[in-house]
Amino acid sequence: VYNVAFARIFGNGMDLRTGMQKVIADALVHVPMLYLPLYYAFEDTALGIGSPMTGLARYREEIWDTLSAYWKIFPAFHLFNFTVTPPELRIGLIACVSFVWLIVLSYLSHYNVEKPQEE
Description:
Blueprint: H1 5-10, H2 16-46, H3 52-83, H4 87-114
């Protein structure tokens, strides 16, 4: 997505304006409308706790907690990545930061699943 689709849409520039366009597209389009819905749908199915539809329902319930956590980590990182990091090193750097993010996302997405229901 970042080195192919974003380059086609926004160009290959490393200037601040191009970097901001990519950050905004990631934070407001790619992640909330594609990445996270697919993550939740796959997670519920793969873990056997539901179906893709139950995963999407859970995503709707947890959307703001999950997105706010994402927005605390990735916009600043992506701005740095799109404006400073050479294109050939971006994916490797994203992989390193994504490792930490997946730990956060796993915790957040399992919090309500494993928490006992209060009556």
